[in-house]
Amino acid sequence: MAKMSGAKALIESWKRENVEVIFGISGGALLPIHDILYDSGIRHILARHEQGAAHAADGYARVSGRAGVCMATSGPGATNLVTGIANAYLDSSPVIAFTGQVNTYSATSSYMIGRDAFQEADIIGITTPITKYNFQVKSASEIPKAVQMTFHIATTGRPGPCLVDIPKNTQTEIGEMDFSDKVQIRGYKPNIEPHPVQVKKAVKLLLEAERPIVLAGGGTISANASPELLQIAELLMMPVTTTFMGKGCFPEKHPLSIGNIGMHGTRVANKVILEADVLLAVGTRFQDRSTGTLDDFCPDAKIIHIDIDAGEIGKNVDVEVPIVADAKATLRLIHQQLVSKLRQRENSPWFNRVKELKDKFLSEMDSSKDNLKPANLLKTLRKILPENAIIATEVGQNQMWAALHFQALKPRTFISSGGLGTMGFGFPASLGAKVACPSCPVVDIAGDGSFRMTEQELGTSVTEDIPVIVVVLNNSMLGMVAQWQRLFYNRKYAAVKLGSVPDFVKLAEAYGAQGFRARSLEEFSNAMKKALKNEVTTVIDIPISPEDNVFPMVPPGKGLKDTIAGM
Amino acid sequence: MANEHNHIISTIVEHKPGVLYTVANLFRRRNFNIENISVGPAEEVGLARMTITVRGDDRTIEQVVKQLNKLIDVIKVTRLDPDHIVTRELALIKVNAPNPKVRSDLINYADIFRARVVDVSSESLMVEITGTSDKVDAFIDIMKPFGVKEVARTGITALSRGAKSAKMEE
Known about the structure:
- The structure holds two protein chains of two kinds.
- Chain A is α/β, with parallel strands linked by helices.
- Chain A contains 22 helices and 20 strands.
- The N and C termini of chain B lie far apart (39 Å).
- Chain B is elongated and about 55 Å long.
- The chains are: A alpha/beta, B alpha+beta.
């Protein structure tokens, strides 16, 4: 036990959780915390908008696999975090938000909770449906336990964001602090080890399968289960498709990789899954964008579903073998049992069928020589970037083009807003990614619409010395919405034309970053090579056609079998 | 929907501020319907029991249980088997009773239902009844012709029969 202020206890608790960096913006209700944080050795990165801070913490978390921390003051500071927290919630990312709050009590003024005080917002009420856990501190001595609990909850089981709301008077209040508590939460015990009977059933199904397929989701990455997944896939010669969130968990150059499934999945993935007889689904929630209409989703397959969240089992699809456990632990066991029962499979008729489909669709792909086509740009980008490069994307066409045409080779190198689809996520997330891995080149694949939403974080990247590269696929449109209008709303381009302002090259320069404009594939290559050597953030603006569409596409309300290749 | 029934879910939660909000919020967010809820301290200090009646098909109820289990402040969730369960509801009913004849009729009805008269004024009578929701419904129906002024019902509370318990596991 030690006597100290709440603010000191908070920083001490952070140190115990090995927090290295906090993304945030200060404000009145955080003054006592910042006063201590300033001398603490923990880096505070001053964002330009709290949403940017939350996304940066999210990017940091996804790349490092550790908790990403953000902090904002009471009221608008806290509410500005909300989009970022919701984004982390839908993508199961361990973001921990700390918010200042008005006093719990004041004898002399109405600056206190419940009096609609200046910059008071009920952030606990607001974030209850979008956090895994949230907690309002009522006295200083609760702070060490609150920090321990939220870090434990955010990073274990199915990861997810947490929030701790800290009233200003508890920051200065002196309390008896107990840092020794081991976290014991009676309502929270994630199941790690799989049930042996279920594993046996899964192994049996896999051994009997003639046409097995893996569907790997974001949970595979959270669980760091990629090596185990690779072993099983290779042993059974089993094709692997990933959900959008699972991209990167299996090397996309691998002969068994068939790319993403879903609304903008590859044609081969959307076809192969229809023919499968056993589906090994790992860490996925069978979201509508992945499955299309459920009746047409792998109609002939028996499903093995591994997920650490029991709530995902049977939520959207009925499964043959549910396994509620950690993906890594489960896949390891499945592999052990498979190895003891079978020798390495050679080219099976199934593998040959998959290969045949893969080659067929590859040859049919648009090989347009127009070198500013997004597909060509992204393939070129892959060639230029080393394997350890990290890609963040914005949301919309840029994101789906990146998913289709940029091969992710390692887990945690492709980060994007999958569940919430938050435009403006990519750029601040790329800053968080760079902080988590300073030696990795980090590229935000952006659309002009998304980049406009958080472009002010150029200020953060320059002043905090976090150099990243932003590739703006600029069609001066909200391109994905325009695509739907083109396809389903008779080309009526309502509320999508953004115009060609600002000039992104000048915008970059205004912030002290560097800007290039690329009007050919060659100019793009050259700009990228310069950017990789640059010590400041580089924005590469590439004017593309506003008529470019993302294909293949499963039209809304249709099944994977209805995938269309183009117009 | 055709397969919808009422199900009773017994939940042990941390007895602290905000838990009711968290649980109610989950139901709203996931589009589940609370028919009925009663909350009170449970057998152990620091714990509360929420007895929640939910309407839905089996798949929905399974989701309700799983989603409740995910809440950190929810410690145990038990779906009570309707065949092995005791359910009770308490109601206070204030009825017009302007004269001795009506009062005596009311008291007779109360006796038949094993309800108790708990307050009397010159104009009205207050009756307390405990039992299953059906019984409470039936009694209120009988009271209606007299002019029911106010009704307060607690909502269903329930425990499973026998030695089996929905307590926290050791």
